[in-house]
């Protein structure tokens, strides 16, 4: 036989054994005692019914009620046979009779003072039916607010009729004109108006479809011309995403949107490669996206291309500063802003000069800038004197030497011509020897005659110069033969 230990017994059963099953009695039973069969018991204060399981009403005086019915005498602010209902918030001094009826405080009405007077009641007072004298802006016995569109907020005190401001209509000006009414004006009786662009209908309260070209449609029917991607009479239906234009059906495409291409069975359902703006087939592009080129748009424009844009076939482009070459892939030297080639700069970074912009301007330049070709400063700092570059100095020196040599050569030629002219005169004058004879110088006259005859019979072998010299020497008084 199996032995049962205390650990196998439910704590709830232990509780029942210890208290003689009294746990089934209501908490309202006096001393927790009740009939073991029916659970009936004597109630403690605040409870009632046979098993004392019900609480007396919250409004019972001193928390006492009949132990059988629960009826009680109510304390202030409560009513009903069991005092379980509170008097209305509108009751004067929170007091009411056994039925909840009471005298109302200002702002409330009806027998139980549970309804508030209209906000339009003068001095917040009304009779037990809610009728009152209205303040301005309200009408009828219950003081309803005049329509939102009433001029100056005023209306007839009995009917509520008023004159409408722009944007409202009907007898009480409580309805707004349609959003599409031109100048926000409509017929004050019917609400009919002239539509501004983008709206249609008798009251212009309907907007043209989002698919209408330029957001314009017929102002009566709403029919319009569709923009790309929409169809039907009012252009309210969208074509398939790849369709630029379709009819009768979202799949009945006549033109593809950029980035899509067609097959006979699947019009505008295929996408171009990611670099294509438009294509005939996936990799047969008719237009590349910005920054790409080539028949399949797989090549990227050079980083040196202006605005990252290039010719979509060749990749040729205009270069940004610092790049050169047809494709703008060659970097100019770091001190060169613009170059034709890396060895031929046309614009240097401030502070450099020369064909490759690698030579720094002199520290003595006022603004650290100098002529891009010569390196000459616009102006010098106070502690520096003006000078030219070594290259310019050499060029200037060579130029000066050449100029001097040219002048000397020209002078020599002129002197030689003068001398020859004189010699020629002496040769052509046969009277020269005769004059020497007349002066009694027979020897000189004889020598001149012999030389004269020699010159006349010169064999052309360049002996004339020697004869010229001899004639001149003979004519010279100091000549000794």
From TrEMBL:
Residues making up the signal peptide according to the UniProt record: 1-23
Ranges for domain TNFR-Cys: 225-276
Listed transmembrane segments: 394-416
Region called Disordered, residue ranges: 459-481
Keywords: EGF-like domain, Membrane, Signal, Transmembrane, Transmembrane helix
Composition skew (Low complexity), residue ranges: 470-481
TNFR-Cys repeats: 225-276
InterPro entries reported in the protein's UniProt record: EGF, MEGF10/SREC1/2-like, TNFR/NGFR_Cys_rich_reg
UniProt entry tagged with the keyword Signal: yes
Classification via PANTHER family: SCAVENGER RECEPTOR CLASS F
Record-given protein name: SREC-like protein
Source organism: Mya arenaria
């Amino acid at each position: 036989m199996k032995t049962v230990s205390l650990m196998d017994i439910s704590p709830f059963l232990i509780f029942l054994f210890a208290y003689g099953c009294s746990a089934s009695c209501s908490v309202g039973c006096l001393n927790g005692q009740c009939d073991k069969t029916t659970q009936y018991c004597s109630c403690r204060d605040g409870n009632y019914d046979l098993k004392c399981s019900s609480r007396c009403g919250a409004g019972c005086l001193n928390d006492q009620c009949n132990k059988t019915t629960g009826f009680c005498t109510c304390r202030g602010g409560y009513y009903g046979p069991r005092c379980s209902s509170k008097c209305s918030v509108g009751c004067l001094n929170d007091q009411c009779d056994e039925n909840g009826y009471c005298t109302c405080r200002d702002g409330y009405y009806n027998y139980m003072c549970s309804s508030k007077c209209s906000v339009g009641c003068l001095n917040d007072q009304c009779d037990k039916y809610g009728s009152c004298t209205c303040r301005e802006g309200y009408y009828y016995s219950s003081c309803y607010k005049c329509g939102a569109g009433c001029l100056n907020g005023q209306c007839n005190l009995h009917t509520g009729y008023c004159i409408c401001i722009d944007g409202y209509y009907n007898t009480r000006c409580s309805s707004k004109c349609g959003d599409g009414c031109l100048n926000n004006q409509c017929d004050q009786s019917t609400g009919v108006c002239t539509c501004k662009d983008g709206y249609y209908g008798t009251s212009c309260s309907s907007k043209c479809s989002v698919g209408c070209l330029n957001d314009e449609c017929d102002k009566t029917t709403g029919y319009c011309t569709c923009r790309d991607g929409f169809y039907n009479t009012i252009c309210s239906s969208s074509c398939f995403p790849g369709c630029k234009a379709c009819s009768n059906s979202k799949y009945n495409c006549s033109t593809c949107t950029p980035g899509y291409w067609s097959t006979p069975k699947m019009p505008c359902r295929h996408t171009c490669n990611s670099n294509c703006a438009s294509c005939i087939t996936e990799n047969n592009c008719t237009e590349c996206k910005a920054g790409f080129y080539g028949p399949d748009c797989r090549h990227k424009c050079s980083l040196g291309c202006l605005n990252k844009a290039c010719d979509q076939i060749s990749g040729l482009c205009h270069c940004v500063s610092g790049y050169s070459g047809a494709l703008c892939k060659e970097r100019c030297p770091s001190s060169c802003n613009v170059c034709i080639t890396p060895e031929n700069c046309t614009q240097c970074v401030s502070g450099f000069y020369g064909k490759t912009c690698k030579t720094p301007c002199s520290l003595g330049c006022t603004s650290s800038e100098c002529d891009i070709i010569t390196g000459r400063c616009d102006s010098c700092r106070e502690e520096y004197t003006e000078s030219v570059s070594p290259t310019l100095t050499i060029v200037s020196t060579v130029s000066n030497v050449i100029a001097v040599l040219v002048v000397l050569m020209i002078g020599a030629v002129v002197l030689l011509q003068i001398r020859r002219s004189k010699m020629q005169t002496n040769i052509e004058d046969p009277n020269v020897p005769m004059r020497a004879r007349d002066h009694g110088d027979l020897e000189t006259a004889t020598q001149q005659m012999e030389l004269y005859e020699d010159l006349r019979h010169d064999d052309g072998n360049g002996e004339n110069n020697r004869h010229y010299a001899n004639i001149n020497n003979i004519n010279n008084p100091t000549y000794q033969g």
